[in-house]
Request: fold
Amino acid sequence: MLKPHRVLARKVSSYADEASAFMRRRRHHRRPFVRIQYRSGDAVELQPDAAEARQIMAAVAGLVDRSG
Amino acid sequence: MRLGQGTWPVCSYTVTPNAKSADGPKGPARQGDLPERAHAVLDRLAGLEPELRAAAVVSDRGEVLASTLDDPVWERFAGDFVEALSAAGPGEIDSSHVATGEAEVFLVSESGFSLVAVTARFVLASLTSFDIRMSLRDLVGEAEHA
Reply:
């Protein structure tokens, strides 16, 4: 049988793991992206720092801001 | 040109190409009441998509035919978005999905029209794209039968 303080320590550590996993998932889901599917069947995800992606994101920011 | 290739873990769907109208809008029957038809299609799409914030139909010439917002600045951004996507790669665009921290923007192009839609974050991407494509096909079909 585990000593009571170890049970407590395990619980705290398990909650901390859950919280950090939640933050990781949240960060991943909030990551902006630009995905394009071409008629040829090719698909690309533009790198966020690419000039094309920045231009698209500028237009998208305007669309999102003005749509309320 | 290599823009950066990636795969993403979302459901995908396959829709057969719309073979009978691959040449873009043309003919006098398509020009007349196209904006009204486009408005009706956007209204139907808004009924299908509760998370839809705004949408517009853009012609292949970059002209906004109809939008759910009465905002010329927003319409200009919609045109800029279509133009920026076309300039981003070598091929003809079929669809696009862009996410920001607070919203998602979809574009589907078909038969010379593009439909741009802004939705809330975390909508079901494949379902939304499918609804947009079907709406666009309604517009193309109605315009051809007019």
Notes: The mean pLDDT of chain B is 83. The radius of gyration of chain B is 15 Å.
